[in-house]
Write a structure and sequence with these properties.
Layout lengths: L2 E4 L6 E5 L10 H6 L4 E5 L15 H15 L5 E6 L1 H12 L4 E7 L9 H11 L6 H10 L7 H9 L3 H12 L13 E7 L4 H13 L3 E6 L6 H4 L1 H12 L9 E2 L4
Parallel strand pairs: 2-3, 2-4, 4-5, 5-6, 6-7
Antiparallel strand pairs: 1-3, 7-8
Helix pairs in contact: 2-3, 4-7, 5-6
Length: 258
């Protein structure tokens, strides 16, 4: 598995986990500005420079990432930041090895059933032969509100991924339930979602935060699923604040308790 890497091993480490249809380069700006950390952003199997590998499952990919991290950094515990598919992977990693994660941010990922997933699964399989066309790429970029300045980077990411891996990982992430071992997580965990995320995502994040002893849940007002692209500065300030145990940006509001 290819890993984009910056910083010096031995300094506090952050593992950035990308969203579906993207790859580790989506975190380039964060990694550049968090130069005081050892940053690692893997390309998942079937994506980016790991496209030649086959995506199997969330658990298999999570195990591979954990092994890579242990090989590449001497620190005992790392921080994990995951968006969308990456957020689902972060939850699985926490369940598998809660002792290895210091702080975690799970962005735009939940564990409650989403309406319409069976229909989306059929639709994505029908779209697979056309996944690399401009029409499909522009449609997906519009759905997650990729800014026009970032479209070319997003397009390159979509062209470098395997359509079958996209479909398989999408279905697995959207049918994920509470991972085994999650009840043992004592890490500091921040669940965050855009206000325009589907309600099951926001609701499950609030519930999960209540179940863990050191977790919080926040909402980014007026934002959608891809709010990292809509408000990159706010997202970066959130990451830095959470990892350094500082107050979160005031723009983020507490999720309604359920």
């Amino acid at each position: 598995m290819f890993v984009h890497e910056t910083g010096t091993p031995g300094t506090p480490a952050i593992v950035f986990l990308h969203g579906n249809g993207a790859n580790g380069t989506m975190w380039n700006s964060h990694m550049t500005q968090l130069a005081d950390y050892h940053c690692m952003a893997p390309d998942f199997p079937g994506f980016g420079r790991s496209r030649h590998l086959e995506w199997e499952s969330l658990a298999s990919t999570a195990e591979q990432i954990l092994n890579l991290v242990q090989e590449r950094t001497p620190v005992e515990r790392v921080n994990v930041v995951g968006l969308s598919l990456g957020g689902s992977l972060a939850m699985v990693m926490l369940g598998l090895a809660p002792h290895l994660v210091d702080h975690a941010i799970i962005d735009g990922a939940g564990v409650q059933p989403l309406p319409g997933v069976p229909f989306m699964r059929v639709g994505l399989r029908l779209l697979q032969p056309f996944m690399h066309t401009d029409l499909v790429i522009r449609t997906i970029s519009g759905m997650i509100k990729i800014p026009s300045d970032d479209y070319e980077d997003f397009r390159r990411g979509m062209l470098s991924m395997s359509p079958s891996s996209f479909t398989r990982s999408f279905v697995q992430a959207n049918t994920l339930r509470v991972p085994p071992g999650f009840e043992n997580v004592a890490s500091r965990v921040l669940f965050v979602a855009g206000e325009r995320e589907p309600e099951p995502v926001r609701q499950s994040q609030a519930l999960l935060a209540q179940r863990l002893p050191n977790a919080e849940s926040r909402i980014a007002p007026r934002m959608g699923h891809g709010w990292l692209a809509e408000a990159p500065d706010l997202h970066l300030r959130m990451v830095r604040a959470w990892l350094q145990d500082e107050p979160l940006p005031q723009e983020l509001v507490r999720a309604r308790e359920v």
